[in-house]
Amino acid sequence: MAKLSDFDASVPLPTGLGVAAIRRAIEYVEKALAELVELYYELANVFIWRVDVIFLSKADWKYEKSTAGESGGGRTHTFGVKAAARKLACAAVYRRKDVVICDGKPIPKNGSDESGG
C-alpha cells in the first residue's frame, strides 16, 4: 500500500492529477502485478517504488538511432530524454523510503521489514 508519508507535496502536478489519484494507480498496479510475481516473489515489494511527474518540451527529447540497421529488423526509431537523471532528480512525487538503488536496481533497504506497497 502506498504510504502518504512517501509522497512529496513539493513536486508540481498537472491540473486534475492529485496524490489520491496517483496513490490509487500505484495500488491498482501493485494488485495487478501480484498475480505475476511468483517468479520474482522476493522482489514483489519493490516493483512500484517511485512515481515521477515531469514536464518535458521538444528540446528535452533526443533521437537514438538503431544499431539494427535499415534491413536488420528490430527497433528503428527510439527517443530518449536528454540528461534524464538531472530532469528526474526532483520529480519524484512518490518515493518509498524503504527502497534504495543498488547497481541501478531498486532493492529493499537492509533491515527493512516494511512492505510499504
Task: Give structural attributes.
about 120 residues; alpha+beta
List the SSEs and their pairings:
Blueprint lengths: L18 H16 L15 E3 L8 E5 L11 E5 L2 H5 L3 E4 L3 E4 L2 E4 L9
Antiparallel strand pairs: 1-4, 2-3, 5-6
Short description:
The protein is an alpha+beta fold. It is built from two helices and six strands; from the N terminus they run αβββαβββ. It has a two-stranded antiparallel sheet. The protein has a two-stranded antiparallel ribbon with strand order 2-3. It has a two-stranded antiparallel sheet with strand order 5-6.
Molecular structure report:
- By secondary structure, the chain is of the alpha+beta class.
- The protein folds into 2 domains: 76 residues, no CATH class; 37 residues, no CATH class.
- The chain is 18% helix and 21% strand.
- It is built from 2 helices and 6 strands.
- A two-stranded antiparallel ribbon has the order 1-4.
- The longest helix has 16 residues.
- It is globular.
- The C terminus is likely disordered.
